Amino acid sequence: MNKNIASFMLAAVFSAVLFASPSPETDGQISMAYPKTISSIPFLELAERHPGDYEGRDFTDHPQALGQLLNGEIDLLASGFTVGYTRYQAAGDIRYLFGHVWGISSIMTSSEISGLEELSGGSIYVPFEGSPIEVQISALLEELGLADEIELSYAPFPQAAGLLVQGKADAAVLVEPIASKLEASGNAFRFQTIQDSYALLSGGEMRSPQVSVFALEATAARVSDELEQLQDRLSRITAEIVEDPAYYGNKYAEYFELPAPVIQRGLQQALFDFPGEEEEVELIQLYSRIMNIEDPGAEFHTY
């Protein structure tokens, strides 16, 4: 097993002890939590268009949000794939429902570079140990023969962005819209999107599971009849967003407290897709092989 995933599993085991796992109850609504990134826009639209069916909240702390799921405070959690994966491996009580974001961050650097080898002797900041970003960047450095040359450091996205701006970091993998904000300001340079880096590892496939939707096993079974409609609605909303990022950039500029062109740029850099269950299983199997982690198996998708 990938050593970074293994270490992150310790936190998942702790969560298994710390949080109870009752089946959450709602008043006819499905409650959802999603990170306050570009990936949240489809969920914000969903809750706005169908307020009687869905109730949403955003978050910035992924472990805390996982705790809310385990504690029955929310039905569905959109979070990093490896957050749900490690919990499943540790306790077996969580289920993967679907992924909708397969790329939403970029390797940003303090100066323009033509290759990661130019960072030798330096470091790349990633958000936390065991995150999808850390797992993928570790694999990329191994593939390029740079694992012993470039160190991985840890800081949440806003702090890592601040270090870049202050010239105290060589590089950081930043989520949207933070990456586009720094690019627009001239305080950082976009070297490569996470989907482009994954394509180097996979032989051309750009989709690696980044933001995925999870539920407790009992909750997944309870809302299973609504999931097809949920995915269909999200798929149609996402297609509209991809088709007209300028409109949604304007609409959500105030929410993110950023200029509309920055939100638009962030949407254009993200990779949204709803591949369907069979293809999704294949994508996760491919990801597991490339990242050297255990394939979660069919039960991970069964509810």
TrEMBL record:
Signal peptide: 1-20
Keyword Coiled coil: yes
Chain coiled-coil ranges: 213-240
Keyword terms, alphabetized: Coiled coil, Signal
Keyword NAD assigned: no
Gene3D superfamilies: Periplasmic binding protein-like II (3.40.190.10)
UniProt-recorded name of the protein: ABC transporter substrate-binding protein
Lineage: Bacteria, Pseudomonadati, Spirochaetota, Spirochaetia, Spirochaetales
